Amino acid sequence: MNGFPPKTFFIAIAILLTLSACNNPKPLYRLDKLPLIPLPLSLENSEEVLEISSIHSIRMEGSDSNLSSMAQDLKIFWKKQTQQELLIQEGSTEKDRSISLEIKEDSSVKMGAYKLLIESHKIRIQAKTSEGIFRGIKTLEQIILLSNLHSKTTLLALAGGVIVDEPQYEYRGAMLDVARHFFSVETVKRYIDLLSSYKINFLHFHLSDDQGWRIEIKSWPKLTEIGGQTQVGGGEGGFYSQEDYQEIVKYASDRYITIVPEIDLPGHTNAALASYAELNCDGKATALYSGIEVGFSSLCVDKEITYEFVEDVIREISALSPGPYFHIGGDESLVTPQEDFNRFMDRTLAIVKKYNKIPMGWYELIGADIPEETLLQFWAKSEDFSKIIPKKSKLLISAASYTYLDMKYDSITPLGLHWAGYLPVKKAYDWDPQTLVPDLDSHQIIGLEAPLWTETIEDFYDIAYMAFPRIIGHAELGWTDASLRQWEDYANRLSFHGRLLEALDVKYYASDEIDWK
Ligand code: NGO
Question: Is the pLDDT of residue 392 over 80?
Answer without folding.
Answer: no
